[in-house]
């Protein structure tokens, strides 16, 4: 097979040119970074697990009416996604205080928030992804008011859905980060769709009983067994059989096969490709 053309390499993922027009291959690496890339490690197996977790959650969200960039799984580390223009805003949804919210405002970690909170961050590594207001977003044209409204309404629905899904599995969805992209239809109409990934790299997930952190905070805070969170979440979601780990190592051949089997069960998703979402109002 011809070598794939690399379009972009990020901290945790690589994007390659896709096999069909308008598609991109999203490759999940084992690299983990924090502090804007200053802290780095390889967490063996993370890429495979995040690829599966994100494919699964995006498929679920698509089924409840959230348009996403996910098309299908390709292999253990790669998925086909739609090419979009990423809107340079990270939406963070919080249900429980943790991380930068606790630090910035002195709210004790673990405090249940009275209602979910949405924050916006401007996606810019040089500036360290600063927090911004909706006024900044529209004033500087990072997104217009329609796009922002669309992102916020999807973020609420995603939070409702994921909160319930994880609660049913004994996991608390503390907070998470979303990215959206613009996609133009055949007739020039604009769609706003969910992009990037949803995985323990951009969600905080705690075991409900023990409150143990089962996400990237294990790496950020130098806790032991950094792959544990990814593995635990994939297992709770029913995505990895016990024997996929051989003596502590993930069997990538087995993971490859699982990725393809999952596509067989989600043929319905193909229909939605023709109808990615609600078109923008004129
Ligand atoms: N996040 C924000 N920027 C990058 C990521 N991954 C995610 C974190 C956390 C949430 O957004 O993983 O789930 C809030 O992060 P913080 O650091 O603002 O508390
Ligand atoms: N991945 C980002 C970084 O490299 C932020 C994070 O997830 O902590 O800084």
CA-based shape: globular
Low-confidence stretches: none
Instruction: Tell me, rounded to a whole number, the average pLDDT.
Output: 93
Rg over CA atoms, rounded to whole Å, is 18 Å
The tally of beta strands, per DSSP, is: 17
Number of separate helices:
8
List the SSEs and their pairings:
Blueprint: E1 6-9, E2 13-17, E3 23-28, E4 31-34, E5 39-42, H1 46-63, E6 70-75, E7 78-82, E8 85-86, E9 89-96, H2 99-105, E10 112-122, E11 131-132, H3 134-139, H4 145-167, E12 171-178, E13 180-184, E14 190-194, E15 203-207, H5 217-220, H6 228-236, E16 245-246, E17 249-250, H7 252-264, H8 268-272
Antiparallel strand pairs: 1-2, 2-3, 3-7, 4-5, 6-7, 8-13, 9-10, 9-12, 10-11, 12-15, 13-14, 16-17
Helix pairs in contact: 1-6
How would you describe what is shown here?
By secondary structure, the protein is an alpha+beta fold. It folds into 2 domains: 6-84 and 226-267, 2-Layer Sandwich (Phosphorylase Kinase, domain 1), CATH 3.30.200; 86-210, 2-Layer Sandwich (D-amino Acid Aminotransferase, Chain A, domain 1), CATH 3.30.470.20. Helices cover 30% and strands 30% of the residues. It has 8 helices and 17 strands. The strands form 5 sheets. A 5-stranded antiparallel sheet has the order 1-2-3-7-6. The longest helix is centred in the middle third of the chain and has 23 residues, at 145-167. The protein is globular. The mean pLDDT is 93. Residues 11, 33-37, 216, 220 line the site of aspartic acid.
């Amino acid at each position: 097979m011809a070598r794939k053309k690399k379009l972009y390499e990020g901290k945790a993922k690589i994007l390659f040119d896709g096999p069909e027009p308008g598609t991109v291959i999203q490759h999940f690496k084992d690299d983990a970074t924090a502090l804007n890339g200053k802290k780095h490690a390889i967490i063996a197996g993370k890429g495979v697990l995040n690829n599966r977790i994100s494919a699964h959650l995006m498929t679920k969200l698509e089924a409840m009416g959230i348009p996403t960039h996910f098309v299908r799984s390709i292999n253990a580390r790669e998925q086909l996604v739609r090419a979009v223009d990423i809107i340079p805003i990270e939406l963070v949804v919080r249900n429980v205080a943790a991380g930068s919210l606790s630090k910035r405002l002195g709210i004790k970690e673990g405090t249940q928030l009275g209602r979910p909170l949405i924050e916006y961050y401007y996606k810019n590594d040089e500036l360290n992804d600063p927090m911004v207001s909706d006024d900044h977003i529209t004033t500087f044209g990072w997104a217009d008011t329609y796009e922002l409204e669309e992102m916020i309404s999807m973020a609420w629905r995603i939070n409702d859905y994921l909160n319930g899904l994880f609660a049913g599995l004994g996991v608390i969805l503390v907070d998470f980060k979303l990215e959206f992209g613009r996609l133009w239809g055949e007739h020039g109409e604009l769609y706003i769709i969910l992009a990037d990934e949803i995985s323990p790299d951009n969600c905080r997930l705690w075991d409900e009983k023990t409150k143990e952190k089962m996400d990237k905070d294990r790496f950020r805070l130098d806790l032991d067994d950094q792959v544990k969170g990814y593995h635990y979440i994939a297992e709770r979601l029913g995505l990895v059989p016990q024997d996929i780990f051989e003596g502590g190592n993930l069997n990538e051949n087995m993971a490859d096969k699982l990725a393809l089997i999952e596509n067989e069960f989600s043929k319905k998703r193909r229909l939605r490709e023709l109808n990615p979402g609600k078109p923008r109002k004129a």
